[in-house]
Write a structure and sequence with these properties.
Blueprint lengths: L1 E4 L14 H8 L4 E5 L10 H6 L3 E3 L2 H7 L2 E3 L6 H4 L7 E4 L7 H10 L2 E4 L14 H18 L21 E5 L3 H12 L3 E6 L2 H11 L4 E4 L2 H7 L5 E4 L25 E4 L20 E4 L2 E4 L9 H22 L1 H7 L1 H6 E4 L2 E2 L2 H7 L8
Helix pairs in contact: 6-7, 10-11
């Protein structure tokens, strides 16, 4: 199979969808890997490293898209990339279509088969290709929130961990999944006063054990969140509806309950955001204010640490890429339930139920 890896063109995105080690694994199995020149530079991987392991380096992104049977990316395709996709081609990347109806329509019109990393689901119900970036995003969320609380950045001017004689900041983490747990771990490590909200009692029990009593776990309800917002210095939104749009857990009206210049970090922004006042931002311009509350809503948080993120992501995606290449897309989708769950668009139809519901469309037949 011919596999194409273009450079990422989303703003402030430095990751790449394959490493030289991945090229080696595919090339050794007889597959051809075409990599756009400079694709790995943001992750400190030079063209010569890819070429040494068997990749063919091409300067033109159109060559990557026109030649590839399987296109590997990190982030959702931008408009110029959607225009280069065609029927008979497979795209494997993060898509987050529930919050992107225009992108979904473009992919439908392309005729390409589109498999989303974030909805690949294994037999245990885990999301193996979302988890590594959720781990990174959770850790970055707390780091970024702590930074944005500094006065020169427009924050309240409070140190997350406090000092002897001065209370620590209060951090609310809404959502106790992979993102929330990692955000809480960093906040605990920075010695903040941490509260984690979730609607699963079983998950709260697991978190109690994981945190060793160093954070409070709270059953998540509108009232419980509302009662804690006046105390919060930093609120991290980590709510996930698999394939669907994130629900709003903090409304604009509730911002009035919060301290002036407190910080909201919305890690759910790829799925539409879990705060009513959230809108996508970039690493270059990461924040804005609504009612004197700082909002940090960067849509590709792990892109800020591309060396860590690229290796973490490709460690997880490579086995699936190999399976698609070795078996062919049709056979792999039939035989691997996890990959089948990742199928979002095929033959001009939306094939994932949660995505279709979010977009107000009927579910297509899929495979």
């Amino acid at each position: 199979m011919r596999i194409g890896v273009p450079s990422e063109i989303k703003s402030d995105e430095y990751r790449v969808a394959i490493t030289p080690a991945g090229v080696r694994e595919l090339a050794s199995r007889g597959h051809e890997v075409v990599v756009q020149a400079g694709a790995g530079e943001g992750s400190a991987m030079g063209d010569e490293q890819f070429a040494a392991q068997g990749a063919r380096i091409v300067a033109d992104v159109q060559a990557v898209f026109s030649e590839a049977e399987l296109v590997l990316k990190v982030k959702e395709p931008q408009a110029a990339e959607v225009a280069m996709l065609h029927a008979g081609q497979t795209l494997f990347t993060y898509l987050h279509l529930a919050a992107e109806p225009q992108l979904a329509r473009g992919l439908q019109l392309s005729g390409a088969t589109c498999i989303a990393y974030e909805t690949v689901e294994d037999a245990a119900g885990r999301l193996p290709l979302l988890a590594p970036m959720s781990e990174v995003a959770g850790k970055i969320a707390t780091q970024a929130g702590a930074f944005m609380l500094e006065k020169p950045l427009g924050g309240r001017g409070i140190l997350l961990g406090g000092v002897p004689g001065v209370a620590a900041a209060t951090v609310l983490v809404i959502g106790g999944g992979v993102v929330g747990m990692n955000a809480a771990f960093i906040a605990i490590g920075m010695e903040a006063d941490v509260f984690v909200f979730d609607r699963s009692i079983d998950r709260l029990r697991e978190l109690e054990v994981a945190f060793g009593g160093r954070a409070s776990t709270v059953y998540s309800s509108t009232l419980a969140i509302e009662e804690m917002l006046p105390l919060a210095d930093l609120v991290i939104g980590a709510v996930l509806v698999r394939g669907g749009r994130a629900p709003h857990v903090v409304t604009r009206e509730q911002l009035k309950l919060m301290k002036r210049h407190a910080v909201l970090v919305d890690v759910s922004i790829d799925q539409g955001g879990c705060f009513e006042t959230s809108r996508p931002t970039t690493h270059s311009e990461p924040t804005y204010e609504v009612d004197e509350i700082t909002h940090y809503c960067v849509t590709n948080m792990p892109g800020a640490v591309p060396i860590t993120s690229t290796y973490a992501l490709t460690n997880a995606t490579l086995p699936y890429v190999i399976e698609l290449a070795e078996q062919g897309v049709e056979s792999a989708l039939h035989s691997n339930r996890a990959l089948h769950q990742g199928l979002n668009v095929r033959g001009g139809e939306i094939t994932h139920p949660a995505v279709a519901e979010a977009l107000g469309e009927q579910v297509g037949g899929g495979v």
